[in-house]
Amino acid sequence: MLAVDIRPLPAFPREPVPQLEVERSLVTYGDAPGPSSRRLPSRTERRFVCTYEGCDKAYFKPSRLAEHVLTHTGERPHQCPHCDQSYIRSSHLKAHVRTHLSVDDKPYACNRSGCDKRFWTSTHLKRHEQLHDQTPSFECDTCGETFHKARQLRDHRVLEHMPPGTKAYPCPNDGCDWSFALHHQLKAHLKTHDTTRYTCTHPDHGLDIPSFSTWSSFQTHLHVAHPPTCPHGECHGRTFKNHQRLKDHLKVHADHEQDVAEAISTDDETKESRRAKKRRMSRVEAERPNKLQRIKDGQAGKDFACGEDGCEKTFKSVRYTDVACADW
């Protein structure tokens, strides 16, 4: 009987790879290593796993694993002969070398009449030839010329039917001469023409609600028509530049109310008469500095006095006590 060798053929990688790194990632049928225990590359299972600590990458082919290992070692074996650029893959180097060549070096040229375009790959040439076979679907509403792509029609309008210097995306609103190089810039600009973009809902307006097209005009309206106002009656509707300053001012009222509450609780404990309580509260108010008055006079926070003899100046920071008096 004729003997037939049924052992599977060994798999040979297409590119040379670091054999040590690949062998450690191979999955075998049995425990005993050997050529007969290796499995052929799979297209559905990523069996070639990176063995570097902290890396969980896996690949279908050992050649891809070998390229990945180079990212850990830092090696870039494919060097450009024209410059100092280097790459991990040979395909990346091939694409880079084309940047050093002229347009005439492109091997695939279009043979259609009136077309002199050339391409690096046959796929790009085939895609270009399909445009010649298609009917142009973008027509200029001014001169009637047709184009295959919207970008070509847009460039045609800018060059032929608009003033010099106009960019690809002009504003369509009447009376606006702005134009932009990118579509998202035009999209952001069109929002400034929307007069209902920002609406003031303050109750003082009632049913007549004003709207604004820009954030700056809306903020100007808030500062002029609805400035931050102190709600306490003793301030007589005092306004502030911003809400932070109003917040700082309201702390003075809160401290004042706390002092009054503490005084009232002390009176309840001693059960003073109404007349005695009124006299004592008058003395407390007279001895305590008026915080609201200090705010109005601009003296609030000036708790650091000058150390020079005969100087009664006070400052908000201790570092100004020496600097300010030295100027005098």
UniProtKB/TrEMBL annotation:
Gene3D superfamilies: Classic Zinc Finger
Matching Pfam families: zf-C2H2
Disordered as annotated region, ranges: 259-289
Annotated InterPro entries: Zinc_finger_trans_reg, Znf_C2H2_sf, Znf_C2H2_type
Cellular component, GO annotation: nucleus
Location relative to the cell: Nucleus
Keywords assigned: Metal-binding, Nucleus, Repeat, Transcription, Transcription regulation, Zinc, Zinc-finger
Record's keyword annotation contains Metal-binding: yes
Main location: nucleus
Domain C2H2-type: 48-77, 78-105, 108-137, 138-161, 169-198
Domain of life according to the entry: Eukaryota
Coiled-coil region(s): none
Molecular-function GO terms, alphabetical: DNA-binding transcription factor activity, RNA polymerase II-specific; RNA polymerase II cis-regulatory region sequence-specific DNA binding; zinc ion binding
PROSITE patterns the UniProt entry points to: ZINC_FINGER_C2H2_1, ZINC_FINGER_C2H2_2
PANTHER family, per the entry: C2H2-TYPE DOMAIN-CONTAINING PROTEIN, ZINC FINGER PROTEIN
Protein name: C2H2-type domain-containing protein
